[in-house]
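Please, structure for the following, as tokens.
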Amino acid sequence: MTYLILFVSTMLLISVTYAFATQQVNNQKQSFQVVTAQQDMVSLDNEILSLVSQPGSVAALDFRSSGGELNIEPSAHSLSLGISDGLALDATIFNSVTGQVVYKLPAASTAGSDFYLAGDSSTITNQTRASLSQLYIASGFQGPQVKLGFRPAVTYADAGTENGQAVTDVRIYIINLNSSTPLSLQGELPLQISSVNTQMTTHTYLLTQPGDLTVTSQLDGVTDRVIVPVSTAQEGSIINLEIVISHITVEEAAS
């Protein structure tokens, strides 16, 4: 009887130890998958940013298998931009989807949600060194997701005077992925990132009672604003607005 109890106890200990070891291996595997997916999404972000000022350029990236699913969603990420001086000027200057890339991690994976790998939650930025990227981990219906999209950036400068009117130059940068082909695949995936072209449109606004210019960005229903100080003169003010859109595609590389 003593031997039987000893045998059962030993087998129970072995079973518990094996189960614990297996769980540890699984946890390590899941942690590795999360890290790998994050690294590849950061690399994708870097490749896109490197092509923004180089129309016609192409880059390649081998996206590793992290046990999840890569989704290229050109019809997602709805962006609306408007400008207003609080008086006579009130206009919508951009309204379109700009696309995003999402990596859906395995359901059992654990990763902190709303953690930003690049950028932050603001839907617009006017800081010269701030990232246009919004790369973050979000909670999905079936598990965590690593999402990559882009927000507009605003720069401005006092450009002197013209015919007695003070001139302010304003430029808004947008990265647009909506020309990409929709894609949803698992496993290792060779990607091609292409800078298709850069589109520039200009608008000139004459203000007789100038006030600060508010640029409002609504991105997937979330709204933020940037205030642009407008130069003033006795004869009024001129705002030269330039919108620069970099069209980038992310697609499966041809075999």
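The chain has one domain: 2-252. The first strand starts at residue 58 and ends at 63.
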